[in-house]
What does this fold into?
Amino acid sequence: MPGDAIVEIRGIGKIYETGVEALTNVTLAIPPGKLSTLLGPSGCGKTTLLKIIAGLIPPSAGEVWVKGKKVEGPGQERAFVFQDFALLPWANVLRNVAFGLELRGVPRERRDEIARRQIAEVGLGGFESSYPNQLSGGMKQRVGLARALAVDADIILMDEPFSSVDEQTRRKFQEELLDLLRHRQKTVIFVTHSIEEAAYLSDQIILLSPRPGTVSRIIHPNVERARSPDEIRRDKNYLDTVDEIWQILKHYVA
Amino acid sequence: MERKNLVAIGVVWPLISFAFFFGLWELAGWWPISVAFPPFSKTLLALLAMIADGSLPRAYLSTFQPLVIGMVLCGIAGIGFGIGMGLSRAVEWFTLPIFIILQAAPMAAIIPLITYLYGIGLTSKVLAVVFLAAPVIVMNSYKGIRNTNPSLIQMCRSFLGTKRQEVVKIVLPHAGALIFAGLRLGLAMGFIGVVIAELLITPTGIGDLITYHSSVADYPEMFAAIASIIVIAALTIHGLERLERTLFPPEIRGS
It folds into this structure.
C-alpha cells in the first residue's frame, strides 16, 4: 500500500440484508489530488463502494482509511455529489448550496458569502434565488457540485453525476470540472458507467468486475490534460485507453 | 384587454351557473314536487329572517364550539401522532392499526357508544368531531413523514447533519404540504362529525335548527339551515385549499 494515499480501501466486502453480495475483497489506494474513477458494468457495486467510502453505508468486511483515520461515518474531509442531485425542493439555490455549512452551524452571512462565490464558480451566477424545479438537470447538478465545494472538503465523491444530464451539457460540464479540479487540488472519486467519461476525466481508472464486485484492473490513462478538450479527445493515448477498457468490459456484458 | 376578458369569464360563468341552478330550484319549488320542498326564493327569505332575528348566528356560535375544540385537538395531537408514527417504528406498531380501523369504521355507529360513555354534553360532540377528523389528519402526517426522499436523508447525513437537523430541516418541511392537506380533509370530516353529533346526540346549534323546523313543518327555515351549513363548509374548505396553494406552490413541493 503506497504511503501517500489519501484514501485506503482494505479488503472491503458488502453483503446486503437480502443476501445479495455486492462487493468482495476490494483493496485500493486513492492518490491525493487526482481524479480516480470507479468503472464497471451495472450492478457491480460501484455506488455501494462509493457510499462505503462516504461512510453512508457500513461495510460487512474490511476497513476504509481516510487521511490516516478509520472511517466510521461521514466526515468533514469528504463531500458527496448525488446522482439524483438531492436538492431541497423548498429551498432556493443559495440555501441549497449553503446547506452543508448551515448544518455545521456556520453563521448566515458567512455561509451565504461562501455559497455566492461557489455559485459563481460553477457558472450559476444570477440563479441564487431560483428553486431547483425551475432548473435544468445540468444546472441542478451544478448546484450539487457547488454544495460539495462550499464545505471545502479535500475529497469529493461523485456518484454518476452526469447520468441525468443531456449529452451537450455533459461535455461542457466535464470540461469545466477538469478545469476546476486543476485549480483546486481536490481528490475526486468518481463513479460512472461511461468508458469515454472515465478515460477523458481520470488519472486512475479502477475497473470493477460484475457482482460481487472486486477490482479487476487499474488503468492509468496517460492523457496529457494541459491541452484543449478537443485535442484530448483526439489523443492517441485517450483512444487507446477507451479501447483497452472496452476489451475488458465487453467480456462482462452478457 | 385579454386579462379583463378572463376575469369577466371567471365571474360571468359561475354566475350563470348559479342562476341556472337556483332557477331550477325555484321552478321545482313552485311545481311543486313535494309540500316539503320550498322554492329558492322562500328559502332565501327564511335565511335572511333567521340571520336578522339572531337565531342562525346563535346556532353557529354553539355549533362551532365542538368543531373548533375538536379541530384544535386533532391539529395538535393528530399531527403529533402522525409525525411520531412516521419517525418511530414503536409508535407506528402501536398506533397505526387503531387509525386504520378508525378510518374504515362507519363513525355514526359509534356515536351512541360515545353518548353512553360521555353523556350528551359538549364532550361527546367534541369526540364525534375528533373521531371523524383525526384518522385522515394522522394518516396524512404519517405518510408525509414516511415518504421523505431517502436521497435527501443521505445528503443530510453526508454533510454531517444530526438526527435532529434531519427531522427539522428535511423531514418536516418535506411533509408540510401533505400535513396541511390532511388538515383540510380533516376539517371537511369535522363538519360532518359536528352535524351528525348535533342530529344524533342532542339537538343544539345548527342541528337543533334543522330538527326543530322540520318537526314544526317550517320547511323554508329547515332548508335554509341545511343550505347554510353546506355553504359555510364549502367556503371554508375552498379557502383552505387556496391557502394551501399559496403556502406550498407546486414549484417548491417535494417530488
